[in-house]
Amino acid sequence: MRRRTTLSLIALPLMHVTAGCAGVRSSDQKPPTGALKTEIKPGRGVTAQRRLSEWLPALAGTPGDTAVFVLEGEAAGPTVFVAGGTHNMEMAGVIAASILVETAVVKRGRLIVVPRANASGASWRDPKDLGPGEYAFDTVSGKRTFAVGTRLTRPTHQGEPDPSSYIHPDSREKLPGFETRNLNRAHPGKANGNLTQKMAYALTRLIANEGATVAFDLHEAGPSSRLAWLIIANPKNIEQAANAALDLGDRGIDMRIEASSSTFRGLSHREWGDATKAAAYLIETPNPYQTSSYDGDPLLDPRHEAEFPLWMRVGGHLEAMMAILNVHNTDVVPAVRFEVSGVPSLAELKARGIGAFLN
Known about the structure:
Oligomer: single chain
Helix content: 10-25%
Mean pLDDT: 88
Largest sheet: 10 strands, mixed
Strand content: 15-25%
Order of helices and strands: EEEEHEEEEEHEEHEHEHEH
Structural class: alpha/beta
């Protein structure tokens, strides 16, 4: 597929996707000591708030525990999982996931969202990173701020020093030792491993135990990276990704597709898809601030940069997810489709701004 450096904008309606499981109990569990305090103001569609430690009790009381939001419709249907904040400076994914929690209303099925998959990574700033410490938005409730964080688990949270090098057990890729703190190199995780492995294990258990049929991991890459405007799909669901990309292209949004590698392992789209029944996808949008993992122009405004403003990148995530879910809906009878309303389109984000979709 041909790649464009910008998105063409057309008038798109408020997204309404038609794509069940057992009910989800509400939880009054308070955040454990050391856990990241959630920035989210849940919307009317949220039916339960949980913690990641429910799927791995060993995370309770650690900086790796994080908020899990459940939006369950009145009608039974499939479960969809969305994670932002695997890499916390990739803010389009964090904000897209947060908008889902604050504005979406599920009509049929269930949506489970983890806006900060690596809560430890949201709690610190790597000294190599010159970027802003937070993003601010004007909302109906006043100014809201979202911490930026960084790509890796905080070293003091990991529970062990970085090795000299890191190789995932199923991979052929030899990586620098600090990549052991990269959540998107640790899947499907280990229940008795270091903190990053425990977070990965809990996310995989959540997807498996809750019967998710589709799982998304939201990311960003530098504009010159081959990853920009890319949907990476587990091989078992690459055809659905291709059909979604065609649909997006017809509506002026060009995204390429790629299948998960069989040799470069530990990544969500590969391991979630292999370890569970879910169709797993990772979506990448271009962040102008990311010229590498850790640098950037400190004078650049990462929200309003002219070519790739934040509203465009957030909209790219939301539009891609909805297109994929529409494709999955074509394979099932109406009674078991996923239906959601209140998800803003790219055109609406451009017209009204991100703050209009935060509480």
